[in-house]
Amino acid sequence: KNLITHTLLVLIILLSGCANDRKDKLSTDVITNPNSASGEVENTLPVIAFEKDVHDFGKLIAGEKAVYTFKFKNSGKSDLVISQVKSSCGCTVPKYPREPIEPGGEGEISVTFDSSGRKGMQNKAITIITNCQPNSTMVRIKAQVISP
Fold first, then answer.
1. Pairing status of strand 82-87 against strand 92-95
2. How far apart are CA 28 and CA 139, in angstroms?
3. I need a surface site. Which of 105, 108, 128, 145 has the fewest CB within 10 A?
4. φ and ψ at 120, to 5 degrees?
5. CA 66 → CA 74, 99, 120, distances in Å?
6. Model pTM score
7. How far apart are CA 120 and CA 138, in angstroms?
């Protein structure tokens, strides 16, 4: 009984020591928090500002592919980095810049909507993950898909 207790104790100590050695943690030098302890805000972060955040394709005939380009500007004070752009549906494919956008710089996110297999009103969300605060922004496309 003593041997089992000691073995379990050693096992618990080893496992708890390993749990803190995670390699997938973000380094704290990557994270910037503009809020200070005094409550003052020093905003040096990038800001993604879209010309428009919703585009309506109108009526599309089923099977048609439609493309729209969302234009944006980095109106912040540091480089804007887009880490991921994902859509709410596989029928919507986004393309986005992989290089940082300097303060005052502009960029585009091109979205292709494939209406194949779709019918009726379509409303798709595209989520942009950036180094802004908040880190996600959403744009939308809409279309009325009709039968040929």
1. unpaired
2. 30
3. 108
4. 85, -160
5. 26, 25, 15
6. 0.72
7. 22
Which amino acid is it at 111?
V
Q: Which of 119, 120, 75 is nearest to 101 (CA)?
A: 75
Among residues 64, 67, 48, the alpha carbon closest in space to that of 127 is found at 48
Cα–Cα distances in angstroms (integers) from residue 125 to residues 95, 102, 112, 138, 144, in the given order: 14, 26, 12, 7, 15
The pLDDT tens digits for 52-107 are 999 999 999 999 999 999 999 999 999 999 999 999 889 999 999 999 999 999 99
- One DSSP character per residue, the chain reads -HHHHHHHHHHHHHHHHHHT--SSSPPTTT----B-TTS-B---S--EEES-SEEEEEEEETT-EEEEEEEEEE-SSS-B-EEEEEESSTTEEEE---SPBPTT-EEEEEEEEE-TT--EEEEEEEEEEESSSSSEEEEEEEEEEE--
- Which of left, alpha, beta for 22 (phi over 0: left; psi -120 to 50: alpha)? beta
Ramachandran sector of residue 104 (left: φ over 0; alpha: ψ -120 to 50; beta: rest): left
Range with the poorest average pLDDT among 3-12, 105-114, 115-124: 3-12
